[in-house]
């Protein structure tokens, strides 16, 4: 191989590594504590997080509120069974609940574990299944913890703006599993919830078998 060819090959590998480092999806490994026997899980309504000082705060707030409702619907579809109880919005005050408030709510629902979810991005795609001007983007985080000592049983964060294969060659397997189409924000959120919940052993008995 000539020196010129080696340089071109090195540049190609460098581009591939750059693509891998700039992928549109960011995840965090779950923290898992399997030492707690869960009587049931009180699932809090998803909470949108907004920077109210930002110029676009009002528009973003509306979008996140809609996104939180979509995620609530998806979570209700995915988590089922006698060990899952969904907390009504009337039982939750605005803002992140304190541990003491979470204990109070858990006791009301006769549970010893609480799940909370925050949504910080929920951008709908602009376009259709096979062509978009703007892809969907979703960011959420969840945490499952026991209310006795406040120990986190597991948690996860999903952050993805869907990318084309031209943007990131390393998304091929995921793109194939999605049918090589552009997802709506709801579909992307469903993918993220399935992935993150699937990493939590404490949710094994609560995940809907059809999901």
Overview of this protein structure:
The termini are far apart. The model is unreliable at 1-23 (pLDDT under 50). The radius of gyration is 20 Å and the shape is globular. 34% of the residues lie in helices and 22% in strands. The chain has helices spanning 3-21, 57-78, 99-108, 172-177, 185-198; strands at residues 25-27, 41-43, 47-48, 84-86, 113-123, 126-127, 132-134, 137-146, 152-161. Strands 1, 2, 3, 4, 5, 8 and 9 form a 7-stranded mixed sheet that branches. Strands 6-7 form a two-stranded antiparallel sheet. It contains 5 helices and 9 strands. The chain has one domain (24-203): Rossmann fold (3-Layer(aba) Sandwich). It has 211 residues and is of the alpha/beta class.
Summarize the structure.
This protein has 5 helices and 9 strands; from the N terminus they run H-E-E-E-H-E-H-E-E-E-E-E-H-H. With 211 residues, the chain is of the alpha/beta class.
């Amino acid at each position: 191989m000539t020196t010129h060819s080696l340089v071109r090959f090195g540049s190609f590998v460098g581009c591939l590594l750059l693509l891998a480092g700039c992928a549109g999806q960011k995840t965090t490994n779950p923290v898992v504590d399997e030492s707690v026997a869960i009587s049931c899980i009180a699932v809090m309504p998803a909470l949108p997080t907004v920077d109210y000082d930002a110029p676009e705060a009002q528009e973003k707030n509306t979008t996140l509120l809609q996104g939180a409702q979509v995620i609530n619907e998806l979570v209700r579809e995915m988590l089922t069974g006698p060990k899952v109880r969904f907390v009504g919005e009337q039982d939750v005050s605005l803002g992140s609940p304190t541990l003491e408030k979470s204990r109070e709510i858990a006791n009301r629902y006769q549970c010893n574990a609480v799940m909370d979810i925050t949504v910080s991005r929920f951008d709908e795609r602009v376009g259709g299944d096979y062509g978009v001007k703007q892809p969907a983007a979703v960011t959420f985080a969840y945490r499952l913890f026991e209310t006795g000592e406040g120990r986190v049983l597991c948690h996860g964060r999903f952050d993805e703006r869907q990318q084309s294969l031209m943007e990131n060659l390393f998304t091929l397997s995921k793109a194939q599993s999605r049918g090589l189409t552009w997802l709506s924000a709801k579909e992307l959120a469903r993918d993220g919830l399935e992935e993150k919940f699937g990493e939590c052993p404490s949710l094994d008995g609560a995940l809907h078998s059809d999901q």
